[in-house]
Amino acid sequence: MDTRSVIRSFIGETFFVEDFADADSFLQKGVIDSTGMLELVAFIEERFSIKLDDAELVPQNLDSLDNICHFLETKQKKT
Amino acid sequence: MCGIAGVTFARGLPRADAHARYEPMVRRMTASLHHRGPDALRGILLDGAALGHARLSIVDIAAGHQPMTDPDTGITVVFNGEIFNHVELREKLRDTYPFRTRSDTEVILASFLARGIDCVEDFNGQFAFAIYDPRDGSLWLARDRYGKRPLYYFERGDSFFFASEAKAIFAAGATAAELDPRALLTTFYLWTPGPEASAFAGVRALPAGHVARLARGKALEARCYWWPDLADERVDRGMTEARALEELGALLDDAIRLRLRADVPVAAYLSGGIDSSLICALAQKQLGGSLQTFSVTFAHERYDERAFQKQVADALSTEHHAVHVADEDIGELLPRVVEHAENVLLRTAPAPFFRLSALVHDHRTKVVLTGEGADEVFLGYDLFKETQVRAFWARHPRSTCRPRLFQRLYRYLPLSAQSPEMLRQFYGIGIENPGALEFSHLIRWTNSGRITRFLSSAFREKVAGFDPVGEFLRGVPDAVRRFRPLARAQYLEIRTLLSGYLLSSQGDRMLMSNSVEGRFPFLDHRLLDLSARLPDKLKLKVLDEKYVLKRFADRLVPRLVTEREKFPYRAPVAEALVGARAPQWSGEVLARGAVDEVGVFDGAKVEKLVARLSSQSTAPSEADNMALAAIATTQLLARAFRGDHASPARAEQVEILRS
After folding, report:
1. Which of B22, B207, B318, B532 is at 20 to 30 A from B32, Cα to Cα?
2. Which DSSP category does B646 fall into?
3. Where are the domains of chain A?
4. Which residue, among A19, A27, A40, A53, would best test binding to B if mutated, counting the most B CBs under 10 Å from its CB?
5. Which of A15, A30, A59 minimises the CB distance to B422?
């Protein structure tokens, strides 16, 4: 499974939402609430064996499927 | 307090026919409301209407029977509730009306004769009543300002049914109890099916603050006589803190004085928070030391307030009683809670209230004062602070330091969610339009609306294109749109959560399930008038909630209570409904097949949610808890009224008066 599908299926399993677009803001569309964001971060760290700094916990990196994929790509290139 | 019911039909029907058809009907309707008034069950057959009444006798126990008829005109009333200022009204009316009893019911008759249905404007009380006027065959309905007492109706052909609870309409055989998809969807967002709706198809509610007339051959015509008017023009700019304290003290004292009027003892609920503590302190003073107080305790520290309850009870020397509610009690009680609430619940918090009113009943007490309403009238909830911060932020939407105020407001949020950028994403919903009517409630409604993640696709299709929030907002008076943000928030909070949930599902229905009447001093409408005159800063001082109320309470309530952090009242959900201590029914109704059969939620998704909550070691999230409560109570409600709700033996006990 590619990154996009892995995260999409995690969100489906954990937050019971399937019908959202790749660019939808999780927080503004009610896909995930603010506590759910914490679960999402924990999942990403574990699944992709990375550690997110506090400075990286921003919407540009996390608040949509597109944003996460882009962020992970950049981060994995760096390491 | 009581239960009322009735049905209208064609006038001039031969008496024998009317008796054959409508006497059994009014018997069953009245009997189904037995819990609301076990002291007497009575009905009356008139030309064109049958009325029923289940009585909980509190004022003029010997003579205040209902249905009550004015002998001169034949006008007949059935009445649920209290007109607290009946003594003063009687003084004014006694030159024109020959009173035969001391009851407030007769004051309604006399007032109606004097000035028609507008008489409700003179009433300080909590009421739902129906008046049948045989002179023109009209049926008049009325409901108090905040909707403390319920009133539902159903129209079919030339029959019109009304009752305190929907179950009486089902008992009449008027309609089957079928869940209304739009009402359910509305509840998943707003916590209430809406001011005019019930959870059931075809069963409507007379909205709070409304009167209505059913004239012969016409449809019901309802009219609003009161709504929470918090317009900017009403604010008294010269109001000082000292004068606010003085006026608040005088009004609250009088509100309690009126609510201690009864021919039976009046007790009080004591949560351990500031509102109920203040009510108890003032009531104890007026009663001269005889006040009884009643509380709930929980095993989880997260929910329990016993230390504060004891502190207040000791300080005020009340005769204190408490009942302990365990997780498994909540699971066990919930099916009966739903039968009484007749609504989908987003929390289990009504269940402890069901147990608490049983404790009051066991102590042979029929009336309690409660602190309900203080948070809405004097700005106590976090939602108001959130609105304040969002309005402040909206003036400079690009500011990065303004959203940091949310870190002060919600200290318990996990760190990752607290970076200013994250806060902006989450709390910035609708920030670009602070003038929108719904500005204050967008975040709450977005959060609650996440319940809809679990809906089945068939149900989604049924409600496709229906926008519950938009529908509700369309019914809000235009003037409210011109209020400042906090006043708009106050209006929306009063009309949704207070009237549609706290006073009903968690209030009247839980109290009356054990024949106990609640009285709410903070919801004396004169206090709302005072609140309208107070500048916001006396209610919410920056982020200090209920400011003027707390300053007033400082003089009367232990400091420990006035200085404690606001503690939201909650009860366990997942701990009570799934896992090791779950009751048998929850396994049944939450099973995949059972969920799919009811058809509102998706059985497979619910199965996953239950599996996760059963195995999870960490505390369940607010969102999961809310979804589980909504799903479980929807499942319970769907099967709640399948049988007959009036026992034939009890229907036989209803005494039918001959007109």
Report:
1. B207
2. S
3. 3-78
4. A27
5. A59
Contact at CB, B447 and A30, closer than 8 angstroms: yes
Complex confidence, ipTM: 0.83
Top residue of A14, A15, A16 to mutate, by most chain B CBs within 10 Å, is A16
Model confidence pLDDT, tens digit, residues B622-659: 899 999 999 999 999 999 988 766 688 899 999 998 76
Cα–Cα distance measured from residue B365 to residue B353, given in angstroms and rounded to the nearest whole number: 15
Measured distance CA(B96)–CA(B113) in Å, rounded: 10
- Exposure string for B519-549, b = 16+ CB within 10 A, e = fewer: bbbbbbbebbebbbbbebebbbbeeebbbbb
pTM: 0.95
Measured between CB atoms, which of A15, A30, A37 is closest to B417? A37
Token pair of B656, please? 């039918």
Distance CA B49, CA B612 (A): 54
Are B417 and A41 in contact (CB < 8 Å)? no
Yes or no: say if B129 and B4 are a contact pair by the CB < 8 Å rule: yes
pLDDT at B412: 63
Please name the residue that has the structure tokens 């809310």: B626
pLDDT in tens, B478-530: 999 999 999 999 999 999 999 999 999 999 999 999 999 999 999 999 999 99
